[in-house]
Write a structure and sequence with these properties.
The protein is an alpha/beta fold.
């Protein structure tokens, strides 16, 4: 993919259009040629009719042959032009969508905390398609008629100036009515587009959360919510079409009055002594008038669709305006234990009044196992996100390895397992390879064995090629965790961060999972975010975080064998009361 980072949105779009410029240019020239060629037909018909009236059969046959060539040639020209436009526009749409997806996935994680990502996905798909459709609309629906109108106007003035003047009056009135019609409905078109987005998001969320919908038997309620949105959309579309009908009636009256006037003046011109217009000339004028007003009748549709697509295209430009962080490419493992250092780190989530972390400073020595504990909402998961680089500190530095990068991270490799494991729709092999798409089958198999996943894979009908449902539908919690572990093992990270990885497992499953982790990552730096304080023998250090600050740091033995905050947390909410009662009893 070409590098489009740090470019203005319009510049990014132009750089995608530029390789297709020749195809668009050829399509445009073909469109102009087709518009000119179409006006040949009325001129040749004038010759045929006048020759027939004067009984000149030779001229009739010659003109008839020319008419056949003009009709067939024009049709071939229009088909070729449309194919050129379709090919270039669809390729552009595909390129735009790819760039848009890459840009969206490169948004900072903080952006997703405060925005509705489902609506953006709908807007991205529709806006990238809208830009390509704008090109098709201009090349296939707008350019040929404009060229035709220009030629027809000249021909009508040459046939009779009075008829030409009538056309110059009628066409601007029709155009003015069309733009007034569009201006009156501009706002409601935006509302309709947003309501359609809301409709799509509503259904998408219901399908993604299908387990919760069924668990709470909310199928009817979700359908009713979707129905309310659909009803609102239907009402807005009806209001839109009702308003358009009045303008359509006015345009019809103007066009028909113009037709009557053109016919009358053409007949007068034909009957004028010495005029060579003839019956064929009258037919030519009426056909040219129809060919000029037909595009104007379509102007509403062309401008309406163009305006709607332009509004959607601006959505694409808005999506490209959001600043991104580069996330492509896996950091190469340093193949040695690395330290993790927090230096006076502060972090605040977007839209929040208070810091999630405030002045946090600690060092995890290379190759050590550390447990990060504390009450819910204290900032533990934020520590995990900072170590992995998913978010950047508001203040201070996070250093992983021996040197820091511009984003306060070193180039050491960091892997993470969270409590919410995401399994993509695809094969078992695709899911394990997600972090390393080029990994060999041998490496994938080795990672699966280390994660304790081999026995399960052997029971699957297609082994590694078995398709998994979205979010791992049909897999148990333990199977999902081991699949995620194999994915991280294949990454061979220098630092492993576990954020409540066993929260959905029973005691036996949790112990088995930890055995696989500790054996597979022996000698590397492991940081575990956990609420489980019953068994911390594996940890070299325990860091307790409460209300965004470090409360205590020490070894498990040191903290659990004295009256510490960690011990009180382990013993539960009544521990502090029991401690005070014991102190009073001794006193």
């Amino acid at each position: 993919m070409m590098n489009l980072e740090n470019s203005p949105p319009l510049s990014k779009v132009w750089r995608l259009v530029r390789p297709l410029a020749l195809a668009f240019l050829l399509s445009g020239l073909s469109a102009i040629a087709a518009g000119f060629a179409e006006q040949v037909v009325p001129v040749v018909l004038r010759v045929i009719v006048n020759a027939a009236v004067s009984h000149n059969s030779a001229l009739v046959w010659r003109a008839g042959a020319l008419l056949a060539v003009a009709l067939v040639g024009t049709q071939f020209l229009k088909i070729g032009q449309r194919l050129l436009a379709e090919r270039a526009a669809t390729r552009l749409g595909a390129r735009l969508f790819q760039v848009g997806v890459h840009h969206l996935l490169s948004y900072p994680l903080e952006w997703f905390f405060e925005n509705h990502s489902g609506a953006v996905q709908v807007r991205l798909e529709r806006s990238s398609r809208a830009i390509s459709e704008l090109f098709k609309l201009a090349l296939c629906d707008a350019l040929p008629p404009l060229a035709g109108i220009a030629v027809a106007s000249i021909l009508m003035f040459r046939a009779d100036p009075a008829v030409g003047i009538i056309v110059l009056i009628v066409i601007p009135i029709l155009v003015a009515l069309t733009f007034a019609q569009l201006a009156s409905q501009a706002g409601i078109r935006v509302d309709i587009n947003r309501t359609r987005e809301e409709q799509g998001v509503r259904v998408t969320e219901s399908v993604l959360g299908i387990e919760q919908v069924k668990l709470f038997k909310a199928e009817r309620r979700e359908a009713m919510c979707a129905g309310r949105v659909s009803g609102l959309l239907a009402e807005r579309e009806y209001q839109h079409h009702r308003a358009m009908a009045a303008f359509d009636l006015a345009k019809f009256l103007v066009e028909r009055l113009g037709f009557i006037a053109v016919l009358a003046f053409a007949l007068v011109a034909m009957l004028r002594p010495g005029n060579t217009l003839g019956p064929g000339g009258v037919l030519m004028i009426l056909l040219l008038y129809d060919r000029m007003t037909e595009p104007v009748r379509q102007l509403h549709r062309i401008v309406d669709e163009g305006h709607e697509r332009w509004l959607l295209a601006k959505d694409f430009l808005e999506i490209l305006k959001v600043s991104t962080v580069e996330g492509d490419g896996q950091s190469a493992s340093l193949l040695e234990p690395v330290a993790v250092i927090f230096e006076d780190v502060h972090f605040r989530y977007p839209g929040r009044d208070n810091d999630a972390l405030s002045g946090v400073a600690f060092e995890v020595p290379a190759g050590k196992n550390v447990a990060v504990v504390g009450p819910s909402g204290g900032g533990k998961s934020t520590v995990a996100r900072l170590i992995t680089g998913l978010v950047a500190p508001s203040q201070g530095r996070v250093v992983v390895g021996n040197q820091s990068a511009k984003n306060s991270r070193s180039h050491a490799s960091v892997g993470m397992l969270s409590q919410d494991v995401y399994i993509f729709a695809g094969t078992v092999s695709d899911n394990i390879r997600y972090g390393r798409p080029d990994a060999s089958k041998l490496a994938v198999d080795h990672a699966a064995k280390q994660a304790g996943l081999s026995d399960f894979i052997d029971t699957l009908p297609e082994k590694y090629d078995t398709m998994l449902g979205q979010r791992g539908a049909g897999l148990s919690g333990g199977q999902k965790q081991r699949l995620a572990l194999a994915r991280v093992l294949l990454q061979t990270p220098d630092v492993l961060v576990l954020d409540e990885p066993t929260s959905g497992l029973d005691a036996d499953g949790s112990r088995e999972f930890f055995r696989h982790v500790m054996r597979s990552f022996s000698g590397r730096t492991i940081i575990v975010i956990t609420h489980n304080l019953e068994n911390l023998h594996w940890a070299d250090y325990v860091i307790m975080i409460e209300s965004g600050t470090i409360r205590e740091v020490g070894s498990p033995a040191e903290l659990l064998n004295r009256e510490s905050a960690v011990r009180l947390l382990k013993e539960g909410p009544h521990a502090s009361a029991r401690s005070r009662e014991s102190t009073l009893a001794v006193a």
